[in-house]
Amino acid sequence: MTTIFEALRESHEIQRDLAEKLLQTSGDSPGRRELFKQLKNELFAHETAEDRYFYIPLMMTDPGLNITRHALAEHHEMDEMIEELTETEFSSPSWIAIAKKLSDKVHHHLKEEEHAFFQQAGKILGDEQKQALADQYKTEYQRYKEMKKDILVKS
Fold first, then answer.
1. What residues contact residue 105 under an 8 Å CB cut-off, 6+ apart?
2. Which of 50, 62, 56 is nearest to 10 (CA)?
3. Where is the Hemerythrin-like domain positioned along the sequence (predicted)?
4. Cβ-contact 25, 4 below 8 angstroms
């Protein structure tokens, strides 16, 4: 059986990979547009499902409250950077600077989750809950992946 932590890590690997690849792109290229669309979609699906099936259940406990507040604040910061990238010309030199900030934030956030939050959450959530949340998260994540956030990307 998969636990919520293993389920979240799968998406974390995809996010790291896409963030790295995005920084290798230049100018207003089809490659940059495609990778940005994929990263945006991945972050959206992951964040939405993770908030609902990881952070909300943790928030219901005293020890989980601080973790949750911190993580949700970082999700919000990443959303704002995505928004900024969406509104910036793909060919602008500032685009890659913002993408670099986003990549750094993504890497920082995932590392913090995997090395601190998961351990703390492991003590708060029961074994059955860890498995149930994994199933719920995966279903929700897939649903949002399929929704495609293309409409948010400037063409």
1. 74, 77, 78, 81
2. 50
3. 3-120
4. no
All domains of the chain in start order, with CATH: 4-146 (1.20.120.520)
Quick one: which of 33, 118, 47, 115 has its CA closest to 80? 47
Lookup: tokens for 29: 């290229």
pLDDT of 148: 60
pLDDT tens for 44-58 read 999 999 999 999 999
Q: CA–CA separation, 106 vs 15, rounded Å?
A: 8
Short-list 87, 80, 12, CA closest to 43:
12
**d(Cα 78, Cα 32) in Å, to the nearest integer?**
18
What integer pLDDT is reported at residue 149 of this predicted model? 53
| Residue 154, both tokens | 């400037």
Those residues of the chain that have pLDDT short of 50 are: 151-155
- The fraction of the chain above a pLDDT of 70, given in percent, is 95
- Angstrom distance (rounded) from CA 155 to CA 153: 6
Q: CB atoms < 10 A from the CB of 32, how many? A: 20
Place of tokens 């279903």: 139
